[in-house]
């Protein structure tokens, strides 16, 4: 995909990444939850978006390559960072470019973005809300392929009975539980130890 920019930035759960296209608007074409450190996240983005232009993250007010990062993407970085730090941020306003995903997946992602922060639902309930009550497994597959996590909050969708289900990001279910905990949702009751 030509004309794509990528950036890796620190968050409370590790280095995340964003990819965007469509200057000057800057719609997100992909997001990346942390891999094994900043370089792991950068490598994953390079694999997903070969030939993309890499940008360096600098702190606001600093000097560096952020000059060419679109304002919408800077806003998305700030929102994702704040959300993963536990702040009540609405990520559903971040513009996504869904043209590269199958139509069913796009429907799942659009609906998943309506799940309020601090709440969860199940794969089956999401399928029912899509008007396809027998498609829980297909919903799970779409979410397992989610190229926009955490902007499309697949971490808010659980298996039947409130079980965590799977999570394809590095760290698996532990990462899912960590993101949910930042939103005030605890799948496992906290213990004293």
TrEMBL record:
The keyword Transferase applies. Residues 103-185 form the Methylated-DNA-[protein]-cysteine S-methyltransferase DNA binding domain. It catalyses: a 4-O-methyl-thymidine in DNA + L-cysteinyl-[protein] = a thymidine in DNA + S-methyl-L-cysteinyl-[protein]; a 6-O-methyl-2'-deoxyguanosine in DNA + L-cysteinyl-[protein] = S-methyl-L-cysteinyl-[protein] + a 2'-deoxyguanosine in DNA. SUPFAM superfamilies: Methylated DNA-protein cysteine methyltransferase, C-terminal domain. It comes from the Bacteria. It comes from Prauserella alba. This is Methylated-DNA--[protein]-cysteine S-methyltransferase. Keywords: DNA damage, DNA repair, Methyltransferase, Transferase.
């Amino acid at each position: 995909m030509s004309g794509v920019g990528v950036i890796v930035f620190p968050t409370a759960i590790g280095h995340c990444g964003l990819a965007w296209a469509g200057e000057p608007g800057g719609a997100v074409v992909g997001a990346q939850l942390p891999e094994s450190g900043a370089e792991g996240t950068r490598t994953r983005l390079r694999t997903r978006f070969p030939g993309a232009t890499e940008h360096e993250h600098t702190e606001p007010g600093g000097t560096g390559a952020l000059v060419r990062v679109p304002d919408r993407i800077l806003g998305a970085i700030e929102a994702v960072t704040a959300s993963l730090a536990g702040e009540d941020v609405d990520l559903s306003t971040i513009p996504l470019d869904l043209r590269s995903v199958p139509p069913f997946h796009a429907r799942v992602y659009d609906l998943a973005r309506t799940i309020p922060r601090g709440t969860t639902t199940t794969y089956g309930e999401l399928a029912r809300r899509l008007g396809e009550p027998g498609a829980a497994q297909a919903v799970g597959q779409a979410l397992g392929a989610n190229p926009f996590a955490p902007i499309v909050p697949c971490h808010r969708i659980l298996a039947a009975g409130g079980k965590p289900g799977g999570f394809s990001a590095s760290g698996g279910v532990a990462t899912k539980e960590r993101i949910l905990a930042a939103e005030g949702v605890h799948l496992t009751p906290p213990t004293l130890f």
